[in-house]
Specification:
Elements lengths: L1 H10 L21 E3 L21 E3 L7 E2 L12 E3 L7 E2 L12 E3 L21 E3 L21 E3 L7 E2 L12 E3 L7 E2 L12 E3 L7 E2 L13 E3 L7 E2 L12 E3 L7 E2 L12 E3 L7 E2 L12 E3 L7 E2 L12 E3 L21 E3 L12 H12 L26 H6 L62 H6 L16 E2 L2 H7 L1 E7 L6 E7 L3 E2 L5 E9 L8 E5 L5 E4 L7 E10 L2 E2 L8 E5 L11 E2 L3 H27 L22 H12 L26 H10 L2
Parallel strand pairs: 1-2, 2-4, 3-5, 4-6, 6-7, 7-8, 8-10, 9-11, 10-12, 12-14, 13-15, 14-16, 15-17, 16-18, 18-20, 19-21, 20-22, 22-23, 24-27
Antiparallel strand pairs: 25-26, 26-30, 28-29, 28-31, 31-32, 31-33, 33-34
The structure holds 2-acetamido-2-deoxy-beta-D-glucopyranose (7 copies).
């Protein structure tokens, strides 16, 4: 022992310089703070300071103290904060804290305490924060907290508490944060939370709850905003169990075994913004269950076993922005299922059992429309069935494929199938909140005077509705006409960008100019919707928007950009104007990079940059996310690594088409020589070389850095 102490002493030279009255090995440089954390102490040191009552903070964390005796703190009656965390405390004398009537914060976490004798905390009536987390407490009773009326935050997580008895927190009316996660709570008395009228936050995750059934359990928590009950064993959520949680903003039931949610289970949760039910055993989402969630913005149903969702399940959720349904067993969704979710922009659907036949056609059309209006981020729907389409993305399938490949002996549409080369070019087919689709008239594809029939609730096509009529009658809508009439008719600039502009190339690059050339696929356009082009360009990685663009009238297919800066990287994108309108989402498909020549290196080869992917990414982010995303992107590009995280937002559509062949092959070989650092689970996604900026040995990286740091 003596040698141990000596050793510690030697290791802590700074200690020698402190006032002689300071306890051995502690730091008393601040007159009112006694800091003895991490000093190898085995007992609470005796302070010999003249004015002990002036000490406000006493830190003893990270020592080897086992016992707290009655006299340890008996002369420190002015103490406001006492930190005893990370010791080996088993026993606390019932009178240990008797004199600490001014104490506001007591940290006892990460010790070996199994019992706090009644009365130990009796005199702490000013206490606001009590940490008892990560101990070995098995039981708590109302009298533990007898006089702690001021407590605001109580941590009891990481213990072995098995039950919460009647009114156990009744004397804590000011409590706002209660941590009970990672215990063994099996039984919670229906009145356990009584009198917690100010409680905002309750974490019950990581316990052993098997169901939530009792209406009273959460009924006395009117101020609760966050309720976390993930990682339990809950199978069943009863009716009205949350009905008094009028202020609740976040409810997490993730990673339970929930297979049954009563129709009225979510009643009363009118303020909830976030509902997490991922990792459960749900199989079916009924309409009506979610209706009480009037203000919900994010719902996570991923990793369940959902195979069906009723078409009107989401119709009341006007504020829904993010919906996660990934890793379920959905085969199809009804075409109008999200028609009334006007602000939905992020939809996670990958990892389902998508069956790409005519049943999903309307849904695909909805998706295409939402994309083309810039309302929706890219959604990955990878077909699993039929075999012929397995692994393909719904986005790329044309309706002919959906209609005939579904191993239906009969194609779904009996008369001529809709030629939806672009997948439903239905301008304003979904006017927000005025959508009307009726199974009997069969018209996702139809724009039916939206003002005439207002917002009927039951207007969504049921999945079982006849797809035949749905597909058959759309020819009255503003749909691209059939190729039987010659070349496809173009009406929508987004679709035009996506499908008709090809072969964007750069040539004649000098130090201040470059020529951009592109081709256009054969098409028809109505006289009123003549096609012309514009070329956007900007220094790469700099602006939030594209401030510069050049219009190319009269059907020209090339343009020379002048007055570019010397030795600078530009991103250049070509997009179409159809009838004077441009796509609200910038073209992600037809961008390319140009590096103007430097003056010193005049005569050097032209430098085309292998940065189409970055360009694609930047554009998408800029336009979709606005300034916020733009800022993040730039930050990401500055810290190169994080480019990886935006991988899922890439357009997967032929992103390299616009590049010169030499560059493209260069890029390909570059890519294939790299280890696959970021596995992509979607078959034909273009993999972004995520390690590109991380490889310290690569000279290529340095070049890239210089190039991209504008
Ligand atoms: C703590 O108390 C227990 C029993 O009261 C005793 O056996 C043990 O030696 C004490 N530990 C120290 C370090 O004083
Ligand atoms: C609940 O708190 C109120 C004061 O806020 C008190 O009067 C009442 O006795 C408490 N209830 C219980 C069961 O202790
Ligand atoms: C709630 O408890 C869970 C399980 O221990 C934990 O993972 C989570 O971080 C906690 N949440 C908060 C906000 O404390
Ligand atoms: C997936 O869907 C097909 C029908 O399209 C069905 O035959 C198959 O059983 C489904 N698989 C699973 C795992 O649900
Ligand atoms: C639909 O796709 C199939 C297969 O790729 C193709 O043969 C067919 O021509 C396409 N139809 C139209 C109208 O593009
Ligand atoms: C298509 O359907 C027939 C019977 O209708 C069945 O025998 C055949 O196996 C199916 N093919 C595929 C690829 O599902
Ligand atoms: C685009 O380029 C490819 C190969 O260079 C060529 O086969 C194709 O015809 C071009 N497309 C158009 C529309 O010019």
């Amino acid at each position: 022992m003596a040698s141990f102490l000596a050793l510690c002493f030697l290791l802590l030279p700074g200690v020698l310089s402190v006032a002689p009255t300071c306890p051995d090995r502690c730091d008393c440089q601040h007159a009112q703070h006694l800091l003895c954390a991490n000093r190898g102490l085995r007992a609470v040191p005796r302070a010999q300071l003249p004015k002990q009552a002036d000490i406000l903070v006493f830190s003893l964390a990270g020592n080897f103290i086992q016992n707290i005796t009655a006299s340890d703190f008996s002369r420190l009656d002015g103490l406001i904060r006492l930190d005893l965390q990370y010791n080996q405390i088993r026993k606390i004398h019932p009178k240990a804290f008797e004199k600490l009537s001014k104490l506001q914060e007591l940290y006892l976490g990460n010790n070996l305490i199994s019992v706090i004798s009644p009365g130990t905390l009796q005199s702490l009536n000013k206490l606001k924060i009590l940490y008892g987390n990560s101990n070995d407490i098995k039981e708590i009773k109302p009298d533990c907290f007898g006089n702690l009326g001021s407590i605001i935050k109580l941590r009891l997580d990481g213990n072995s508490i098995e039950k919460l008895p009647d009114a156990v927190f009744k004397s804590l009316p000011n409590l706002m944060y209660l941590h009970l996660e990672s215990n063994k709570l099996r039984y919670i008395h229906r009145n356990a939370f009584i009198n917690l009228t100010n409680l905002r936050f309750l974490n019950l995750s990581g316990n052993k709850q098997k169901s939530i059934r009792n209406i009273l359990t959460f009924a006395s928590l009117p101020s609760l905003t966050t309720l976390l009950v993930s990682e339990n064993e809950i199978q069943h959520i009863g009716n009205h169990v949350f009905q008094n949680l009028k202020k609740l903003l976040k409810l997490s039931l993730s990673n339970n075994k929930i297979s049954q949610v009563e129709l009225g289970a979510l009643k009363g949760l009118s303020n909830v913004r976030e509902l997490l039910m991922d990792g459960n055993e749900l199989v079916h989402i009924r309409s009506g269950v979610l209706d009480p969630l009037e203000r919900v913005e994010e719902i996570d149903f991923s990793r369940n076993r959902i195979y069906s969702v009723e078409p009107s399940a989401f119709t009341q959720l006007q504020h829904l922005k993010i919906l996660k349904l990934e890793k379920n067993q959905l085969t199809s969704l009804s075409g109008g299922i999200f028609a009334l979710n006007g602000v939905l922009y992020n939809l996670y659907l990958n990892g389902n059992n998508w069956t790409c036949d005519c049943n999903i056609l309307e849904f695909k059309q909805w998706m295409n429309t939402a994309h083309s209006q810039g309302r929706l981020l890219t959604v990955f729907v990878q077909c699993q069935h039929p075999d012929a389409l397995k692994g393909r993305y719904l986005d790329y399938l044309n309706s002919t494929q959906l209609l005939y490949q579904g191993n239906n002996s009969q194609p779904c549409g009996s008369d001529s199938p809709v030629e939806s080369l672009a997948g439903g070019l239905l301008e304003s087919a979904f006017p927000r909140k005025e959508l009307n689709i009726q199974a009997d008239q069969g018209g996702v594809g139809q724009t039916k005077k939206p003002h005439a029939e207002k917002n009927k609730r039951k207007s969504v096509v049921p999945r079982s509705g006849s797809p035949t009529s749905a597909a058959g009658k759309t020819d009255t809508g503003r749909v691209v006409s059939s190729s039987r009439l010659g070349f496809p008719l173009v009406t929508d600039p987004c679709q035009f960008n996506r499908h008709f502009i090809v072969n964007v190339t750069v040539s004649q690059v000098s130090s201040n100019s470059a020529t951009i050339t592109w081709s256009v696929r054969e098409h028809r356009s109505a006289p009123a919707s003549a096609v012309s082009f514009r070329v956007l360009f900007d220094r790469f990685g700099q602006a939030v928007r594209f401030p510069r663009f050049v219009y190319v009238r009269d059907g020209g297919h090339s343009v020379t950009l002048h007055e570019l800066s010397v030795d600078t990287t530009y991103m250049v994108c070509v997009e179409g104007l159809v009838g004077g309108a441009v796509c609200q989402v910038a073209s992600r498909d037809h961008c390319t990079g140009v590096v103007t020549l430097g003056t010193v290196r005049s005569g050097a080869d032209l430098q085309l940059v292998t940065m189409a992917m970055l360009g694609v990414n930047a554009l998408l982010l800029l336009l979709v996310g606005g300034a916020w995303m733009g800022r993040r992107l730039r930050r990401r590009l500055q810290h190169r690594k994080s480019a990886v995280h935006v991988r899922h937002m890439y357009s997967t559509r032929r992103p390299f088409r616009a590049m010169a062949p030499a560059v493209a092959s260069d890029f390909t070989s570059y890519q294939s020589s790299r280890p696959r650092m970021c596995p992509v689970d979607e078959g034909d996604l273009i993999e972004f070389p995520c390690d590109r900026f991380l490889d310290n040995n690569s000279t290529r990286r340095d070049e890239a850095l210089q190039r991209f740091t504008d």
